[in-house]
Amino acid sequence: MRGCISKRKNGTYAYTVEMGKNAEGKRRQKMKAGFNTRKEAEQALAKVLADMGRGSYIEETKETVQEYFTKFLELKRPNLRPGTVKTYKWLIGYHIIPQLGQIPLTRLTPHHLVTMYEKLRLDGGLSPQSINHVHKVLHDGLATAVRYETLNRNVAALVQPPKIPKAKTNVWTDVELVTFLEYSKPYRYYMIILLAATCGLRRGEAIALRWEDVDFTKGTIKVAQSYVRGEKGHAFQEPKTKAGIRTIALPQMTIDALKHQKVLQAKDKLAAGVKYTDHGLVSQTKNGLPINPYYFEARWLDMLRKSGVKCIRFHDLRHTHASLLLLQNVHPKIVSERMGHSSVGITLDRYSHTYGVDYKAAQEINRIIH
């Protein structure tokens, strides 16, 4: 491997490197100009020759961040869930490209990322969690570029995204839960609410529950899919959790509500006639279509306002379910399985507040050693 330095007519310096021969046996050279001093050009040449000696040299590309991440999204699309594709598309299109799009990919530095995160926080009003999502997509995209030898390092791996503060779990007491369930009983979407409150289902899991996943004989449901808003309309995918498909035992009140729901759907089918498009879901619109989660969220907030019960997120119904079970000394392992957590450690960490001050432990240790 050889290289040389030359002075240009405009007074700047350039280096030229011998790159061997191409497939046709012709000599290949690489030249880079624009160095203000000979020393700068010599240092750059020495680095290129050292990288080539180690086998880590990657030829610079003029591809911008925008061009690369547009291609990256299409490369990832076949391996992503519909909801994840939508998230990646939004994060790339609304945050990464507007902030970094015109920078050449090989010139991207950790400083660019740190500056962007701060700008998203101050000017964009993004939460630490949202900025972490941006960072995750950047890290994934740049790691892919390294694997395909477009880059020789992932600058996102050198940057620490903002720390996500631990969210405070907001739950209802048993009295508040009973009050709201009684209030919401006449509403069309009561079944979705009840499944979250009595089975710990996520919103998408409750909306996506099918009749084929309900076993009235055994008194169980199988959580086998979740509803997401894809790029084009609704889509279904496997549950979010790594624990995968799970089976949950139903309380009698939920079994009774499911039977009543069947009757209500039969009336809907009769009223809609040929307009009814049955998707086989436990909760559907009057015409049999899946329920839009954003429309449901609006109805949920409306019910909360009118009920007079303390306002919580719909997702907090799931937290309420776990907290009430742990307060009744249901084994954390059982609660973890109902929630679909990948480990019991997640359950214990998330709901440790449920136990409060452990007077029982103090009494037990006193009994043992006193």
Topology:
Elements: E1 3-7, E2 13-21, E3 27-35, H1 38-54, H2 65-76, H3 82-100, H4 110-122, H5 128-147, H6 174-184, H7 190-199, H8 203-208, E4 214-215, E5 220-223, E6 226-229, E7 234-237, E8 246-249, H9 252-272, H10 293-307, H11 315-327, H12 332-339, H13 344-350, H14 359-369
Antiparallel strand pairs: 1-2, 2-3, 4-5, 5-8, 6-7
Helix pairs in contact: 2-3, 3-5, 7-9, 7-11, 11-12, 12-13
Describe this structure in words.
- It is a single chain.
- This protein is mainly α and 370 residues long.
- The chain folds into three domains: 3-54, no CATH class; 65-158, Orthogonal Bundle (DNA polymerase, domain 1), CATH 1.10.150.130; 174-355, Intergrase catalytic core (hpI Integrase, Chain A, Orthogonal Bundle).
- The protein is built from 14 helices and eight strands.
- The chain has helices at residues 38-54, 65-76, 82-100, 110-122, 128-147, 174-184, 190-199, 203-208, 252-272, 293-307, 315-327, 332-339, 344-350, 359-369; strands spanning 3-7, 13-21, 27-35, 214-215, 220-223, 226-229, 234-237, 246-249.
- A three-stranded antiparallel beta sheet has the order 1-2-3, covered by helices on one side.
- A hairpin with a 5-residue loop joins strand 2 and strand 3 (27-35).
- Helix 7 runs parallel beside helix 11.
- It is elongated, with a radius of gyration of 29 Å.
- The mean pLDDT is 87.
